[in-house]
Amino acid sequence: MSLAAYCVICCRRIGTSTPPPKRDTYWREIRNIIKFTGSLLLGGSLFLTYEVLALKKSLTLDTQVVEREKMKSYIYLHTVSLDNRENHGIVYQARKELHKAVRKVLTTSAKILRNPFANYQYRIIAQACDPRVLIGLARSKESDLRFFLPPPPLPSLKEDSSIEEELRQLLASLPQTELDECTQYFTSLALNESSQSLAAQKGGLWCFGGNGLPYAESFGEVPSATVEMFCLEAIVKHSEISTHCDKIKANGGLQLLQRLYQFHKDCPKVQRNIMRIIGNMALNEHLHSAIVRSGWVSIVAEAMKSHHIMKVSHAARILANLDRETVQEKYQDGVYVLHPQHRTSQPIKADVLFIHGLMGAAFKTWRQQDSEQVVIEKALEDEDRYTTCWPKTWLARDCPALRIISVEYDTTLSDWRARCPMERKSIAFRSNELLRKLRAAGVGDRPMIWISHSMGGLLVKKMLLEASKKPEMSTVINNTRGIIFYSVPHHGSHLAEYSVNIRYLLFPSLEVKELSKDSPALKALQDDFLEFAKDKNFQVLSFVETLPTYIGSMIKLHVVPVESADLGIGDLIPVDVNHLNICKPKKKDAFLYQRTLRFIRETLAKDLEN
Q1: CA separation for the pair 468, 133 (Å, rounded)
Q2: Model's pTM, two decimal places?
């Protein structure tokens, strides 16, 4: 304001002064112009200086954060409220426009600073991370793999030794105590037969002697991994025992398994067995630091980026068992979380559990029905059109508030092809084993729905009956909202009556025997569960096949007839598919999936709303 007044006074003096002599007019005008220009420049400089100081007071750049961490993609701005008394007139408008221009400059700078980190910045972060942060990053969906340091160098192999030989030595060093019959069998098979198999493999021949006979065909697909598979099967069993895990770690097992994992990058079966072992070891919290130090977290973090659902699920199990900050549950061998597999802010309000049946598996049982266009569909990589596990892709997307779990256990039609000839587990034994594992995974803490196929439905019924007898399992009963049965033989199956193939005639498995229509155990299970389900008012939905199924090359039969799939309560829906495809929808909008989804949403409606 003082500047404007001064300019007005100068102009008035020029206008009212008497005409000077002509010789002085020229220099007097020059002096007046200089005075006016100088005053304008001085006043403008003072104004800009004042505004810059005011802006500096309003916007403070915390550059110490940038210097200290060197890892941020933005600058912290601490705003200070402006004095409302200054918000008026031309000055306020000028300041507003000036601040607006500065904000544009800051916005442009911020965009430039949001470029990806330099490699050295990722290394700084990776070196600074403690195990908890590292595991948290590995379980974050969008984490960059450069946050993880490569695994430390592996120790050199001993002279005149091989990976196979060191794996056998690791197995031989494990205790032979606390072993069940199958663990003893796998250990004996690996130690006694692996050298013979390796020699035969090198010679281009297969050895069909001794205990190796049932395994020759199954290992023929991956001859280079035969010896390791013998040993890994045994070590998987040993890793279920805590004290044996300590021995695996003490004898360099973490490094040896890592070497084997990297060596067999093109053999998913070997890698999955190795991840099963690491997942079992991760159940023991005192081994977490050793697992992290050995570099397994970076390997598992990379596996989490895979497009293969089985590989990702095995990796997710390892990380969930390592993550004690956000996960209270422990996932034992055979229990896989399909959703959520990463840390998430989405609250989980209910559980859905998938239990496969005879000759099934945790993933392949629940794949989309194969068709002639499978190859084309897969090439498009569109999970809405084709999925290898529809609970993982379709259901998780349609119901994100669910925790989806799938379990796996070994079954066989005949003892001739049994993985462990001594393993003759009844439905009662398996139900207790699965119930124990599921309870450790927190099943029963939330409302839940059971989804089962074939013999898996009998296991669900037996588990619920057993849980009702144990006070510590009462939450499993109280939180069960409903059950879906896909062709479950409540009253027996024709499978047990057929003996066209001599292998099934001579060596029917215990599971097949228990499915016969005249089985007293099966009848008692049906009668007890029907009364129990009515009393608890469980919601029930049943599907049943109407087409026959090929079992091998010589047997064609209707595995579960309509009358056997009728539980006695709930809806029973016949579907024109065979026994294997009754739980495999053709596409996402198919009746099988949409009716299943509707049942889940309706049964859990109140729980999902809350």
Answers
A1: 41
A2: 0.75
